[in-house]
Amino acid sequence: MKPRTRSRVTGILGRVYLGAILLFLYAPILVMAAMSFNASEFYQLPFTFSTEWYERVWRNDLILNAAARSVWIAVVVTVVATVLGTAASVALWRYDFRGKRALQVLLFPPIAIPWLITGTAMLIFFFGVGIGRGTPAVIIGHVALALPYVIVVVTARLATFDRTLEEAARSLGARPWMVTRAVMLPWIAPGVIAGALFAFAVSFDQFVISYFLSEPGDSTLPVLIYTAIRKGFTPEINAISTIIIAVSMVVMLIAARFTKFGGER
Amino acid sequence: MTRLFTTAAALALIAPTLHAAEIRVLNWQGYGTDIEWAVKAFEEATGNTVVHEYFNSEQETLTKLRTNPGAYDVVLINSSFTPQVVAEDLLAPIDPSKLENFDDLDPAFVKNNGLNEDGALYGVPWAWGLTAIAVSNNDFDTPPTSLEVLWNPDWAGRVSIRDDAVEAVQIGALATGQDINDVQDLEAVRTKLAELMPAISTYWGSENDWNQYMASGEFAAATYWSGSASRSIGKGLDITFVVPDEGAIGWLDGLSIPKSSENKDAAYAFIDWMIDPEFYSGWDKEGAPATANTAAAKALPDDSFNKAVLGDPEVVARVQFMQPMTDDKREEYLKLWQDLKAVQ
Amino acid sequence: MAGGIARTDRLRAIALLSPAYLWLTVAVFLPLSAMAFFSIITDVPFGDTEWHVTGENYTAFLESPTYARLLLKSVLLGVKVTALCVLIGFPCAWVLAKMIKGRAREALFLMVILPFWSNSLVRIFSWAIVLRGNGVLDKTLSAIWPWPVKLNLLFTESAIVIGLVHSYLPYVILTAYLALQAIDDSLIEAARSLGAKWWTILWRIVLPLSAPGLIAGAVLVFVPVVGSFMEPRILGGRLGTYYGTVIEDQFVAVFNWPLGAALSFILLAVVLAILALASPVLRKART
């Protein structure tokens, strides 16, 4: 086989593989969306088309408010966690100091200890020190849980950054922040974007902290879903989830059309 | 943020002139107090507004009450947990004179020893029901009469019990002919449950999974709550609720007022509405547990699930009502249940 | 935190690090130290509960084989899921980083994470619908396969693994992508033109250079999977009892925070020990 044909074959195989993975990733999402159009309340087959659940969501202020609240909390959390996390990652990468390993190890407790325990601990502590409950408390908690993810992902990207580039820029007289902005940030941008996407996912799916720390009546979507399960939730949940995914997809594809963040090469 | 504050400020200005309060109710989601028409009727009649917060387990209710003094006005507590909450001094005693419907409540429930402490009542008996079994009519031409159906090899792989240590032990106690509140031979329960484990397809955890698994044929027979069975039947699931010969577990839920509540009058008004026969007849149509109000129970139509299944004195005679339980006992049962689950 | 670094650098390091770490201290470390305290006392001091210091909550772990058995089961699950995520995710990241060019790459990069902007509980219930006997998977396979297929994967260990791999795969794909995309194509071209076989290139160039991303991804999978309880419970049915389950029970089924906290810290210690043991191997892979 000639090299060119071989690379074309691997190219096709690679795309087929990628397609298969995407199918796997989207399989439950497609089922979720399908069930939002299924008349059966118990996700029973055979499938009978119905838009009833969408009509009910449209009239259900509880779900709409919770969804809106979840989205804006997640956006705030994403911005804060990404900024703080990226700053910390840069410091962890650039400077060598005693205790650095310890700081890196400290990122694991929030990931390893089940959220239920961390959430309960936060509840007790926040009351002890007077932060209390409410949306600010919820955001504080979410940011803390999202930070380790951002730091781990951005640090991994920074590990590939060529230090000599930074040194070269510095030796040419650039100030440190200019070096950071002009040389380093563009390089780590894909890492920062990935970190932000994870931070959003962490906040948007976070149940325990919102459950313990939000005010009555101010539920987020996960709280509504988890507390509904005992008495049974309806495909309205599928409908709102489908709407959110569809809207996110449109926003993301527009973002992908107009910006470049996947890296230069 | 600012909008939140201005709304709060506006509310604070209006509130005193209306003498209306916002009462906060802590309950399971979808369990009676949050039915839309009922809340609306209450809000229109009294001018008070109702806000709900939901919990996922009794232990979390306790945690919420402990850490949020003043946050709740009405809270649902299962009578087997009430003494624990009373012991922590979190509840206010109930003054029956503030409830118009109080005299219609079943005296047996009012005297329930879980709800009473030192001569004072700490929970208004509200709803009760049974944990027994429900079977799929697709699989059973005639419903079984014995709890042994769960152990029947014909249905191995298609039976289920709830993932709850106390309930599992109590089902085991019923199956071995013991008093659910005073299990003498715990080893017999362990052995009996160990025999059941391999036949279980999955433990159920909520009405939601129960309905789905029953609808998709994963279950043929499983333990279930009476109120939930009535709801599931109402939603079109083809099942029969059976109170087996060995008996069933009875439970009673009360509505309590936290000591720290600042809207006790409004809380009383809400509880009074919750035990009103008019509310109950509406709730029953949507699928409800049994009421503790005898007048409301009598007013039910004869074909109603709660009258047909739970109104039969012979059935009621077989029920063993859950008594209050210490946390040590719960921990002992949990350990037993975890040990059983861990070796699967 | 003085090392061998200059004073201005030290100030900069502090300025960059302190917002994140102060935040973590207030919202996670201090609350967790309260939990650590609970783990060495007999009862949570609410109201006027009697309590005293004890090591019982930790020794309870050793007294019953249940906890150790479940922890081992959870660690093995973590290893299995992590290995699968790496094996499946790495080639995927390679395709994304090296074979796809232009705008499509940006879009695909986002598409990988998007499914996780949905609720995990809804996602798991959707998997249950896919995997159950006569469910979506069985029906689809029966339709394309000449013979009827009866896999009935629901309530098996495979179902748990499928659900968890699905939940955590994006971490590996994206972190591996970040590292792979940074490798200069000319490096690979040079090796190839010098006659290196593809496995030599993979083993000597690509893997060492992408190790930081791959390791970060693997850690982000392994650590939470060991403590997971929701996916196992719903997808594993009777077999779905894991170490995370017994921790959760101490908070939900009974009010035994001290034991629950002790079990969590044992989990944390074991996870950190495993990462420490693995790190010499991983570091070797990096160089």
In terms of quaternary structure, the protein is heterotrimer
| Total number of domains of chain C | 1
Question: Major sheet of chain A: size, sense and barrel closure?
Answer: none
Which bin fits the share of residues in helices of chain C? over 70%
Helical proportion of chain A, percent range: over 70%
Question: Nearest-angstrom radius of gyration of chain A?
Answer: 23 Å
Mean pLDDT of chain A: 85
Whole-angstrom Rg of chain C: 23 Å
Describe what this molecule looks like in 3D.
The complex is a heterotrimer of chains A (265), B (344) and C (287). In chain A, helix 2 (52-59) packs across helix 12 (236-258), helix 3 runs antiparallel to helix 9 (176-205) and helix 8 runs antiparallel to helix 9 (176-205). Chain A is mostly helical and 265 residues long. The mean pLDDT of chain A is 85. Chain A has twelve helices and no strands. Chain A folds into two domains: 1-27; 62-258, Orthogonal Bundle (MetI-like fold). Chain B has 344 residues and is an alpha/beta fold. Chain B has two domains: 2-127 and 251-308, D-Maltodextrin-Binding Protein, domain 2 (3-Layer(aba) Sandwich); 129-250 and 322-342, Periplasmic binding protein-like II (D-Maltodextrin-Binding Protein, domain 2), CATH 3.40.190. Chain B is 41% helix and 18% strand. Chain B has helices at 2-18, 36-46, 58-67, 82-87, 107-110, 165-175, 186-196, 207-215, 226-234, 264-274, 277-286, 294-298, 305-308, 313-318, 327-342, and strands at residues 22-27, 49-54, 74-78, 91-92, 116-117, 120-121, 124-136, 159-160, 221-225, 239-242, 248-258, 290-291, 319-321. In chain B, the strands form two sheets. In chain B, strands 1, 2, 3, 4, 7, 8, 9, 10, 11, 12 and 13 form an eleven-stranded mixed beta sheet that branches. Chain B has a two-stranded antiparallel sheet with strand order 5-6. In chain B, helix 2 (36-46) links the parallel strand 1 (22-27) and strand 2 (49-54). In chain C, helix 2 (56-63) packs across helix 12. The model of chain C has no long low-confidence stretch (mean pLDDT 87). Chain C is built from twelve helices and no strands. Chain C starts with 6 loop residues before the first helix and ends with a helix. Chain C has one domain (65-286): MetI-like (MetI-like fold). By secondary structure, chain C is mostly helical. Chains in contact: A-B, A-C, B-C. At the A-C interface, helix 1, helix 3, helix 4, helix 5 and helix 6 of A face helix 1, helix 3, helix 4, helix 5 and helix 7 of C.
